[in-house]
C-alpha cells in the first residue's frame, strides 16, 4: 500500500464539492491515500502530466476495475499496441476532418431543431431540455445507434458513469450500469445490418474489429461522450451568465466561444479523474506506491494548481488554457476531443446565444460529482 498520508473524506460532501479536499491534498504533499475511495489521489498538475504517460508503471489495464467489470474492456482500459490499434480503428469517425466535413452540418441541424422546439416556451432547464438533447443527438449520429433515443443515450451514459465511479459500493448503481450496457448491446445488434456512414460502429467493423470489441468502444463513447459535452454546454452557459464581463468579451470579438469552453473545462473539469493500477513498487516524488495499488490522477485538482495557473479558482476566458488536463494527456488523450470541441464551442454555445440574445438565469445552480462533475439543473429564460 502507498505510504502517502491518509486523508479522510465525507462522500456526500466530496460529491457536492470536491475542491476543498483536493486543494488540501495538492497543497500538502501533493498526494494522499483516501480510505473511503481505497485509492491514492495525485493532485499536482505537472506530476500527473508526467506520470500519466508512464503506462509501464501506472497502467490503464485494470481487469478487476469497475469499468471493465461493468462495461467490458475498451480502449480506455488498454495500453501500448492494443490501445493504439483501437484508436486507429476509431479515428475515421473522430478525426478533425470527419468532424469538419461530415458531423458539423449534422450537429447544426439537430441543434437548430432543438432551438425551434424550445423557442415558444420562453424558458427551460438547459441541462435537461437543451444540453442533454444536443449531446444525445450528436452521439446517435456519431455512434450510429439510432435505435437509442437521445433520452436513452443520456440515461445509459449516466448509469454507466455512476457505476464506474461507484467506489463506495452501492449495489443499485451497479445494477443500473449493467442494465445500460444491455440496452446498448441490443441497439448495436439491431444496427448491424444498417451501418451509417462514418459512424463509430461502421468504421470499427470495417477495420476488422470484432462486434464485441466495437460494442465496448461504443459503450465507452456514450459513457464519456454524453456527460462531458452535456455538462460543458450547460455549465459554460451558467459560467458566462454569472460572469457578464466575460460574455461581453465574446460578443465584442475579444474572445471566442472556444475560449469559454476550454476555460470552463479547466475550471470545473467535467471529467475529474482517471484511475490507474500500479504495476511495480516505485517512489514518485517521495510517495511510495506498490504493485496492485489503485491510483487516481485528479484532473480537477491539477487544473486548479496555482503552480501552473494564476488565480486558478477564477473563471477567466482570457487565460492560457494550454496546460489544462481537461482532455487528459499522453497516449490516452481524449479520442473524441475534436467532436466535443466542435459540438460545444462551434455549435451549441453560439447557436444558443444567437437565438436567445437576452438569455438569463432563472434560479440557483447546484453542481454534483467528483469523478464526473456538472450542473444538476440550469434554469434559464429568454
Give the helices and strands, then pairings.
Blueprint: H1 11-16, H2 19-26, E1 31-34, E2 39-42, H3 45-51, E3 58-59, H4 66-71, H5 80-94, H6 96-118, E4 123-125, H7 126-143, H8 150-164, H9 171-191, H10 200-206, H11 211-241, H12 244-251, H13 257-268, E5 273-278, E6 282-284, E7 287-289, E8 294-298, H14 299-302, H15 337-355, E9 360-361, E10 367-368, E11 374-375, E12 379-381
Report what the structure shows.
The protein is of the alpha+beta class. The chain has one domain (11-381): Orthogonal Bundle (Cytochrome p450), CATH 1.10.630.10. It has helices at 11-16, 19-26, 45-51, 66-71, 80-94, 96-118, 126-143, 150-164, 171-191, 200-206, 211-241, 244-251, 257-268, 299-302, 337-355; strands at residues 31-34, 39-42, 58-59, 123-125, 273-278, 282-284, 287-289, 294-298, 360-361, 367-368, 374-375, 379-381. The strands form 4 sheets. A 5-stranded mixed β-sheet has the order 1-2-8-5-3. The chain has a 3-stranded antiparallel β-sheet with strand order 4-12-9. The chain is globular and about 60 Å long. The termini are far apart.
Amino acid at each position: 500500500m502507498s505510504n502517502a498520508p491518509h486523508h479522510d473524506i465525507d462522500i456526500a460532501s466530496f460529491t457536492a464539492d470536491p475542491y476543498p479536499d483536493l486543494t488540501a491534498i495538492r497543497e500538502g504533499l501533493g498526494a494522499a491515500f483516501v480510505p473511503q475511495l481505497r485509492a491514492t489521489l495525485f493532485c499536482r498538475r505537472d506530476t500527473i502530466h508526467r506520470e500519466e504517460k508512464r503506462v509501464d508503471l501506472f497502467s490503464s489495464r485494470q481487469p478487476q476495475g469497475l469499468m471493465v467489470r461493468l462495461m467490458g474492456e475498451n480502449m480506455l482500459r488498454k495500453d501500448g499496441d492494443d490501445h493504439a490499434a483501437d484508436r486507429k480503428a476509431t479515428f475515421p469517425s473522430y478525426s478533425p476532418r470527419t468532424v469538419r466535413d461530415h458531423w458539423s452540418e449534422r450537429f447544426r441541424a439537430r441543434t437548430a431543431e432543438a432551438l425551434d422546439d424550445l423557442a415558444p416556451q420562453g424558458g427551460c432547464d438547459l441541462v435537461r431540455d437543451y444540453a442533454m438533447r444536443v449531446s444525445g443527438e450528436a452521439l446517435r449520429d456519431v455512434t450510429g445507434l439510432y435505435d437509442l433515443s437521445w433520452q436513452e443515450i443520456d440515461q445509459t451514459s449516466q448509469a454507466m458513469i455512476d457505476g464506474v465511479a461507484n467506489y463506495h459500493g452501492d449495489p443499485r448503481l451497479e445494477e443500473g450500469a449493467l442494465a445500460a450496457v444491455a440496452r446498448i448491446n441490443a441497439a448495436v445488434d439491431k444496427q448491424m445490418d444498417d451501418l451509417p456512414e462514418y459512424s463509430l460502429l461502421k468504421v470499427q467493423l470495417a477495420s476488422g474489429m470484432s462486434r464485441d470489441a466495437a460494442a465496448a468502444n461504443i459503450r465507452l463513447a456514450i459513457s464519456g461522450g454524453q456527460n462531458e459535452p452535456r455538462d460543458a454546454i450547460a455549465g459554460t452557459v451558467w459560467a458566462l451568465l454569472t460572469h457578464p464581463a466575460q460574455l461581453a468579451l465574446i460578443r465584442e470579438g475579444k474572445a471566442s466561444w472556444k475560449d469559454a469552453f476550454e476555460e470552463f473545462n479547466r475550471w470545473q473539469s467535467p471529467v475529474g479523474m482517471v484511475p490507474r493500477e500500479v504495476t511495480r513498487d516505485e517512489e514518485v516524488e517521495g510517495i511510495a506506491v506498490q504493485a496492485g495499488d489503485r491510483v487516481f490522477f485528479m484532473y480537477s485538482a491539477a487544473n486548479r494548481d496555482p503552480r501552473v495557473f494564476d488565480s486558478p479558482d477564477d473563471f477567466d476566458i482570457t487565460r492560457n488554457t494550454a496546460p489544462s488536463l481537461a482532455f487528459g494527456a499522453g497516449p490516452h488523450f481524449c479520442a473524441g476531443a475534436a467532436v466535443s470541441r466542435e459540438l460545444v464551442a462551434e455549435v451549441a454555445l453560439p447557436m444558443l446565444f444567437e437565438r436567445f440574445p437576452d438569455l438569463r438565469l432563472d434560479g440557483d445552480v447546484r453542481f454534483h460529482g467528483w469523478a464526473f462533475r456538472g450542473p444538476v439543473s440550469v434554469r434559464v429564460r429568454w
